[in-house]
Amino acid sequence: MAITRRSFVQAFGIGTVAAAAYGPPKVLAARGREALAELPPWERDRALAVAADDAAIRLNSNENPVGPGPSAIDAIRSALSSANRYPFGSEADVVAAIARARGVRQDHVLLGCGSSEVLRMAVIACTSPARALVTAAPTFEDPAFHARTIGAPVIELPVDRELRLDLDAMRDRSANAGLVFFCNPNNPTATVHGAAAVSSFVSAVNRISPKTTILIDEAYHEYVDDPAYQSAIPLALDNPRVIVSRTFSKVFGMAGLRIGYAIGRPEVLEPLKKHQLGASVNVLAAAAAIGSLADPDHIAAERERNHEVRQFTREAIAKLGYAVPVSNTNFIMVDVRRNVQNVIDGCRKQGVLIGRPFPPLTTHARISIGTMDEMRQCMDVLGRVLGRSTSQG
């Protein structure tokens, strides 16, 4: 069952009066914000109004529709009694848990308020007006946003025809860059690069620009099916120019709790720490993260659930007459062969929120994977908006 704002509050025994006092859910910072970032104010307000309705099907921000697992929920309940205390001890506990789970030393782990804080720290530490950010287009936008905020040049290289990052182009533009952002799997295209390609790319950038740091964002790591893929964590442990970022927002279902982390050598993480928020991980998030790491069976089940629903969605869209590339994430991207904003607006009017446009792919729709029931409803709505039905081939 999907966890709504109301059911999540009720899970902790908070009455409906108290729930009403909190009002509609606020748009999440960082990754949840992207669905609204480019809309004009009046459209943003309309989208917020729909998002505040529990009845709306929210497939616009790559959120896990079923929420945290039972171990995480139990851990949150237990931690409520510590909510009046600062989370310094909790931070140390969750760092230790992450280090155990990933097979690294604790000084190779740096916490963040979501992995978005890790990206912000890396951009501020590594780029400057004299040292550019090299990134893709489209990819997750936070690094480019933060780079522009501090006046650092941003070099954006379009994805290739298969919607994969153009690693050759990114390599060739990396000379004297401060940071290369490598989202793998990539958001919003759902494409992935295998371990050999990643290792070759890192080695090439190291040769061309020895002082350039490469940040590999593995937010969707747990969803990958491609057998050629491997985590870049071993690279980060060996290479002082590589950082890997991870998050508890996706497969762990904790986007609203805001906890992520970086893995890298202590000497590469040290400059990032200077830009870290103090006490950025709250006690409930820390407890939930520790509980989730202790429950690998739930994560395996969530991965399988996503795989099943994702496959249903790809097949349903194929019946509508649209090709759907392979996805290694909890979302898909499909070329609807028309201005995608019109499709977004049409779906929104019927209570389904899908991702905003991602230039230069302005005919492509990014659709997050919800529950099976949500995706069935989404496919019905999408078919009506596109003027087709799932019975068409």
Features:
Aspartate Aminotransferase, domain 2; 7-stranded mixed sheet; 15 helices; alpha/beta; two-stranded parallel ribbon; Aspartate Aminotransferase, domain 1; 11 strands; 393 residues
How would you characterize the overall build of this protein?
- By secondary structure, the protein is of the alpha/beta class.
- It has two domains: 5-68 and 296-386, Aspartate Aminotransferase, domain 1, CATH 3.90.1150; 71-293, Aspartate Aminotransferase, domain 2.
- It is built from 15 helices and eleven strands.
- It has a seven-stranded mixed beta sheet, with helices on both faces. Strands 1-10 form a two-stranded parallel ribbon. Strands 9-11 form a two-stranded antiparallel sheet.
- Helix 5 packs parallel to helix 12 (283-293).
- The model is unreliable at 13-30 (pLDDT under 50).
